[in-house]
Structure formats: C-alpha cells, structure tokens
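Table S2 (continued). Query chain:
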Amino acid sequence: MMQLFTRDNGLSVSLLRRSRDSSEIGNPKASLSLDLDNKWSYLKTHGNGAWESFPSYLDVVVPRALDFLRARHLTITFFIVGQDAALEKNRDALTSIASAGHEVGNHSFHHEPWLHLYPEQQIETEIASAEEHIERVTGLRPIGFRGPGFTVSEAILKVLGRRGYLYDASTLPTFLGPLARAYYFLTAKLSPEEKHQLQALFGSFAEGLRPITPYRWRTDGGGLIEIPVTTMPVFRLPIHASYLMYLSVYSPSLALCYFRTALKLCQLTGVQPSLLLHPTDFIGGDDERDMSFHPAMQMPTEKKIEVLSKAIDALTAQFTILTMQKHAQEVAAGFKVPVVEPSFAQRP
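Corresponding output:
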C-alpha cells in the first residue's frame, strides 16, 4: 500500500514538474543581472578613505549568490568591476561565477559613478582595462556593459560600439534620479566642489521619459542594444531588489505587494523586465557593520534573503529568466526595434 502511494506520488510530482516546465516554455521572457559592487566601492562613493585598501566581501557574497541562483536553476549576468578582477584575492570568487555558467559583464574598472564626466579617451582606458582583467580571470570577454550608478554618455556609447559590445544596460528610466542624488549628497562626505561636479549624477527628471523597453542607440558603432533596468510601467518607479529592501525596512509585505503589482503591469503592457540585484541584497548589518550608511543595511541577512526569495520566486513563476546577453540577442534578432538618438545632460 505504501509502495503504491509512493509510486503514485512520484508520478504526480513528475507530471506536475513536466506540466510546469511546459508552461514555462510559453512564459514571457525576463533578464536578471547582479552588479558586483564591492565593499570598497561603496566606501569610496561615501567618502570613506578606508576604501584605499580595497576591503572585499566577495568571498561571502559570491558563494551566497551562487547558491541562491543554483537552488532556482537560474543563469544570470554578473557585472564585474575591473579593479576587483585585478586583485589576486578575488580570483577564486570571480572564477567561480564563470565556472557556474553565468555571463560576465563589464562594470568599469574603477567603479566611479561620474564616469560620464570623463573625456572619451579616459573612458576607453577604463572600459578596456576592465575587459582585460575580467577576461584574464574568468576566461570570458564581456560583451555587455553597465555604468556604475547608471552613468551613461554619448562618449561611453561610442567606445562600446567601437569595441564591439552587443549591449549596454546603464539606463534607469525613472523620475527619482534627483531624489537619489539628493540622498547621496546628504549621506556622503563630499566637498561643495565635488557636489558641483556631480550635479548630473543619477540624471534629471527627464530620465523618466526614456524608453522602458529595449532599443538601439544611433551611434557611429552601429547597432548597440540598450536594455534598460526596468522600472514600474506607467509610474516609472524603481523595482530593483535594493529598492524592495529599502521598502521592506518599513513593511516586507508592502514591498512584495509593490513588486507583484509591478510584475503584473509588465505582463499587461507587454514589458519583458530586466531586473537588477546588488551584493547588499545578500548581506545585512550582521555581516557588514561598516556599511550602516547604506539603505536597508540595518536589516539582518536572514530577513533580506527571505524577501529576495519571495520576490525572485514571484518573478520566475511568471517569466522565463535569461542572461542579459540572450535578452539582447533576442532583441537584436527581432523586427521593428526602435532607434534612439543619444541625448544626455551636458558636463558641468
């Protein structure tokens, strides 16, 4: 009797899994990526001189993220900072990303959110140096780029086009850029001169008017695809995981309701979301006390992982997850991809 029940139960599970897998084939697509910003980069943008010794949490974050993704059978894109790839102490963590089958992207060498202020030749050096070290450590040459702090400029796009990149993923179409800049200025230790230099950081309200779906940039390099970091359709509010963590400080249930609403709007409007993770989504104040200045870092790690699990499980229940590269390839192979003229705020 017990044997029969076990066989029947196994058959039911098998049929259920087969049915679920079949339904996923017809699911709309979404891409998922992780910006591998290291501890030193957060300290640097905060104005903390301790960054100069390049403190790292990659040996904690990377295994934790890989385990999280492996449990869900997800393959995503990791945007790696060149400076981290250049340091021997990070080799094992970064190598494990490629070994697990994930795509690697270029997240600049020095991870400076004011990259858009630099002249074209300096941008070329920044991107090329990161390429070199990322490929040396992982064995993979990146063909996708995301600017630190969502920084983007016409010069950056020209360099990417010349260097044969398939896609950029640096735009965040939201109206909240000026508010993010104000928060950053309030919490970071910056001089008045530095604040003046960074007055275009995170963009203007006009960023909220940029396309929310993929398009091609009209550049000298040709057909560079832009995959925007998805914001909530219609309202253009951020929905990436770090924003959910911020909301979860006040109410985890409200944060998840907000996220599920955004996914439903994506389905209703035909948006294939491209969503973003950060290392701080996998660590809390019990892991890193030096980063108490960062939003939601007072949350314990266990609580963050719980919120993240529910959010990603909601995403995978409704969308088939792709790497950024596969997402861009599908866009490039499609018809009637809009072409957009680069238009950015001028340097101060």
